[in-house]
Amino acid sequence: MPLSYSDVRRILEILDSAEHLESLDVTVGEFELHARKPGASAFTRERAGQALAARTASTEAAQAVVTTETAAAEEALTEVPEGLLAVRAPMVGTFYLRPSPDQPEFVAVGAVVQAGDTVCLVEVMKMFNTVKSDVAGTVERILVGNGKPVTHDQILMLIKPSKGA
């Protein structure tokens, strides 16, 4: 029985909320899930790298989930500048600014958005999850490149709220 999207999401929520747990490895049939919190020990990162290198089946699924290690290596904005609001990743996955490669971007720097507008997608195991703006305003910065891995709660973009928002 393969893991469903909701199973993977729940496993990642458990890892995220556990204070004394920095990594988690789950194997169900041929599917392997290796999740790491940013700052996980070098031993667990080395072991995850070896397991990922040894995999031949389900590489794309594992790659979409094993992104905390890559994203942690990149410098990410952790503090939201005053006067701006953050759009955050709802889960670990791959960030996309376009609904498909041949379509225009949802938003660009300087774009005006309304509350509820889709601003990007986060893909996990071939499932695309829309990320919406919580506020009306102007996109000030986009912090992640299209097609790059993201971690749960990572800041994806900053929006300057409209005066009435």
Features:
165 residues, alpha+beta, OB fold (Dihydrolipoamide Acetyltransferase, E2P), 2 domains, four-stranded antiparallel β-sheet, 10 strands, 30% strand, globular, Biotin_lipoyl, Biotin_BS
Could you explain how this protein is built, in words?
- With 165 residues, the chain is of the alpha+beta class.
- It folds into two domains: 5-73, no CATH class; 85-161, OB fold (Dihydrolipoamide Acetyltransferase, E2P) (Beta Barrel).
- It is 24% helix and 30% strand.
- The strands form three sheets. A four-stranded antiparallel β-sheet has the order 3-10-8-5, with no helix packed on it. Strands 7-6-4-9 form a four-stranded antiparallel β-sheet.
- Strand 1 and strand 2 (31-36) form a beta hairpin.
- The termini are far apart.
End-to-end C-alpha gap: 47 Å
CATH class of the largest domain equals Mainly Beta
What is the strand tally? 10
**How many distinct domains?**
2
Shape: globular
The largest sheet is:
4 strands, antiparallel
Radius of gyration: 17 Å
What is the chains' assembly state? single chain
Q: Reading side by side through the largest sheet, how are the strands ordered?
A: 3-10-8-5
Overall CATH architecture of the largest domain: Beta Barrel
Q: What's the CATH H-level superfamily name of the largest domain?
A: RNA polymerase II/Efflux pump adaptor protein, barrel-sandwich hybrid domain
Number of helices: 4
- List the helices and strands in order: HEEHHHEEEEEEEE
Output mean pLDDT.
76
Strand proportion? 25-35%
CATH topology assignment of the largest domain: OB fold (Dihydrolipoamide Acetyltransferase, E2P)
SS-based structural class?
alpha+beta
Stretches with pLDDT under 50, minimum 5 residues: 54-75
Work out the helicity level.
Answer: 10-25%
InterPro entries: AcCoA_biotinCC, Biotin_BS, Biotin_Carboxyl_Carrier/Decarb, Biotin_lipoyl, Single_hybrid_motif
Pfam family, one: Biotin_lipoyl
Domain Lipoyl-binding: 84-160
Function: This protein is a component of the acetyl coenzyme A carboxylase complex; first, biotin carboxylase catalyzes the carboxylation of the carrier protein and then the transcarboxylase transfers the carboxyl group to form malonyl-CoA.
